[in-house]
Amino acid sequence: MSGHTACLAHLATSDRDTYLASLVPGADINHRGTSFTAPLLQALLDALRDPATGRPHLGDAAFESATFEGDVSFESATFRDTADFRLATFEGRAMFESATFEGGASFTSATFEGRTVFESATFEGGTLFQSATFRDTADFRLTTFEGGVTFGWATFNSNTLFKLANFNHNAVFVSTTFKGRAVFESATFKRDALFRLTTFENDAIFQSASFERAVSVGPFVCARLVMLSGAVFGGPVTLSFAARSLQCRRTRWSSTAELRLRYATVDFAHAVFEYPLTIAAEQEPFVLADGQVMDEASLARLPDGVVRMMSLRGVDAAHLVLADVDLSSCLLTGTVHLDQIRLEGTCSFDTVPSGTHRRGWRPVWFTRRRTLAEEHHWRARQPASVPGWNAAMPDIGHVGPAQLAPVYRALRKAFEDSKNEPGAADFYYGEMEMRRRDRNGTTRAERGLLHGYWMLSGYGLRASRALGWLAAAMLVTIVLLMGLGLPKDTPKQEATGTVPPGGGKVTFEIDKTDPQNPTSDRFTGERFEKALNVTLNSVVFRSSSQDLTTIGTYFEMGSRLTEPVLLGLAVLAIRNRVKR
Predict the structure, then answer these.
(1) Are 206 and 186 in contact (CB under 8 A)?
(2) Which pairing describes strands 370-371 and 350-351: parallel, antiparallel, or unpaired?
(3) Confidence of residue 495 (pLDDT cuts 50, 70, 90)
(4) What is the tens place of the pLDDT at every residue in 107-147?
(5) Any residues with CB less than 8 A from the CB of 340 and at least 6 apart, and which?
(6) SS3 category, 302
(7) Kind and range of the H or E run holding 428
(8) What residues form DSSP beta bridges with 293?
(9) For a 10 Å CB count at each end of the chain, is N or C smaller?
């Protein structure tokens, strides 16, 4: 302190009174290393109080390494020049509510033991909270940062509130640690926002926040929820983080965006994006600039790196790219332009229940295929549902076959457009299945045709089913031919003619005896061979030269009609499964 060898706390009472009386509003003060009690600080601020406004006005204020004992208040104070609180310690509550920092402000390596309040404060110059420690709640609601601000390497041990804060210049949160909830709800970032290497041990709330320029977030780790619902991104966005959950409901993306995630369950319902947006699952932990692998210990109990999409309802998917994500629980009804979505890498869907189940006395099993989450929920609600279908979600709404068929159709087209015919086959099966189950949009006659198509060949996709029916049809044909279709003996030709009495030309009539139905020895090896020959010719739509009884001819006609169709369905099913 200028003119004295002792700090303000250790001055004699008369000297202190003399010093305080010499101060005028806006005076420069230097109290580095001073220990302030609440009454002492109040006396200092009273000496600097502007009579016109009733608020303390400080010029260049140096409080480096100062200690503030108990609760202290700089409420509504104005710092006209630099405010230096480096290495300062606030042992109680620190109240800077509605304070104005017209010059630079530095709280580098400061320690705040109690609740810290900067609500409605204004920082007009550059602001440093680098390496600061906040052991209790830090309240920056409605705070305005006109200059750049950095919280790099700062530690927030409790909840942090930046609700409705305005960051009008660059905001840097590099290597910052938030141990409580970090709330940036409705905050505005007008310049770059950097959250690289940040650690969120609790929820990170950016609900309704506004990012007007480029945003580079991550890589960082959030042990719980990252909330971006209602946020607006005006510039390019890069998000790279590992988190338990990510909510982006009704988020607006006005430029290109790339989300590279680990572990997160993602809710993207009703999000709006006008440019390409990519959501990709990182297979390996993020690697930092120094080559170190980012610590993900707080997420160790979750499945390794799996990113699960929970909802794309209300999204226009024309510009959406998904890579290596799990769609087994994703709600897709209500998604627009789903046929234009791009699925890269390994995007997995749910499957039908495995094994054999019973519906009453009847055994029930399902052919292996990929399914939508909504089909699981719909089937789980049916009275005759079998175990294995995932339980219905309470907020899924009314979703049935009529709503699911178009979704399956759109996904089928998306796979076909990407030249993945085998991948499209499951969604074609799902589309046909929903049409067959739809009692409102599908007529009874159409449902009957679809039911037959399903039974015979699994909608032209189950070759084993078609081949099984073909084998059964051939077996029935063989048995019928052996029993009734083949004659007892091969009919013999007979030639009859009359020789004129006076000689001359003789005319012969050649006829064949009618085939006779067998009376015994119907099932012999010879008759089996003949019946097999007739049946095999019927399969390839050829007529054999074998003599048949009248009813055997009808058997052959029926065989030539049905068996080539079944063979065609089997070939079609194989083609649909292997075509690329």
Answers:
(1) no
(2) antiparallel
(3) low
(4) 999 999 999 999 999 999 999 999 999 999 999 999 999 99
(5) 317, 318, 414
(6) coil
(7) helix 421-437
(8) 287
(9) C
